[in-house]
Amino acid sequence: MQIPTRSLSVLTVVLVAACGMSSDQTDMPASSGSGVFQGAVMGSGSQSMLVEVPSSSAATTTDTTGGFVLANVPKGATVLHFSGGGRNANLATAPVVPGEFRHLTLSLSGTSVTEQNEQTETEFEGTVDAIDGKVLTVAGRKVAVTDATTIRKEEDAAATFADLTLGTPVEVEGTLNADGTVTANEIRIEDRNDADRTAFVGTLTQITGSTLSVGGLTVNVSSATVIVKGDTTLALADLMVGDQLLVRGTVQSDKSINATRIRVLQREDEPEEEMHVSGKVTAVDANTLTIGDTKIITDARTEFEGSGFQSLADLKVGDFAFAEVIKQADGSLLAKEVKKFTPPPPS
Questions:
Q1: CA-to-CA separations, 145 to 39, 112, 150, 166, 299, in angstroms, rounded
Q2: One-character DSSP codes across 297-315
């Protein structure tokens, strides 16, 4: 499997799906394959732009920072359209899969929008439908499992590649490559029944004990519910009325949802959250590395993980690396953690 890169720059994407809804559940807020893109377009004139998926109901405008949340993105969508301020541009993207959360980075220059593929993150659910060496097929996508991939069961119990058998329900987090393949950062093995699963985005309007009201739906939170924002795990007490949430869970007979995972989408005017950059190393010098076209700074706090990997001196051009980064005030990317990995051979 190749792990190609391509030139990109800033946008965040989220997709949601409601799976296996029966006829008496038509009031659920997300139809099968629908989704949400959350993002920020960087560049002069990126404010108050129309962002839409052509020939669909998915449309919104960017805010004063270039950020946006685009709901109802259809399954299989491959184009985003940007217009306004004399600009009119299309961005081709890898096809959306049901229930996907995608975090991209886009830049706007003239009449073109480009995407830094090294920073394109994806999160989606599915079953393991095929296994070819260390490459899985999940939700129709090839997912490369490397020596840097963390595999877990629910409740954070450790697991191994041997636990990923055909038919296993999983949630995949990783880097979406230019060819639509995914390099997995983490795979969680789930205990679920797809017929009762749903995923939707809504605004948190009420918190009553461990029960939430999200987009007009009742969401039950338990000790097993994982709540995250970016790469940070949150507690129920960290949620705020007005938050926009991506909820995954199981539909109950009373139409409430037992949440298995809640993701807090980035609040407006907040600093950019952590990002992942993964791919082939194209340059290394004293305190920086470049993955694809993305330059990343390291400092004394940067952690290096992997056998025999203790500093940038152990990294060379042509290696493959995964970096967890944060954007600094000057726009540069600072690595919190860097892992070196070996990709599976081409299939």
A1: 27, 34, 9, 15, 28
A2: E--TT-EEESTT--SGGG-
Tokens for 253, please give them.
């007979």
- What residues have CB less than 8 Å from 33, skipping those under 6 apart? 15, 17, 74, 75, 76, 96, 98
How much is the pTM? 0.77
Q: Which of 35-39, 181-185, 251-255, 302-306 has the lowest mean pLDDT?
A: 35-39
More confident residue, 330 or 337: 337
For residue range 318-334, list pLDDT tens digits in order. 999 989 888 777 778 89
Q: For all residues of the chain together, what is the average pLDDT?
A: 82
What CATH class does 195-264 carry? mainly beta
Domain ranges of the chain: 1-194, 195-264, 275-341
Rounded CA-CA distance 117/44 in Å is 21
Residue-wise burial string across 271-289, b where 16 or more C-beta atoms lie within 10 A, e elsewhere: ebbbbbbbbbbbebeeeeb
pLDDT digits (tens, 9 = 90+) for 271-284: 556 778 888 999 99
275-341 to CATH, choices 3.40.50.1860, 2.115.10.20, 2.40.10.120, 2.40.50.140: 2.40.50.140
Q: Same fold for the domain at 195-264 and the one at 275-341?
A: yes
Rounded Cα distance, 211 and 221, in Å:
6
Identity at 27, one-letter amino acid code: D
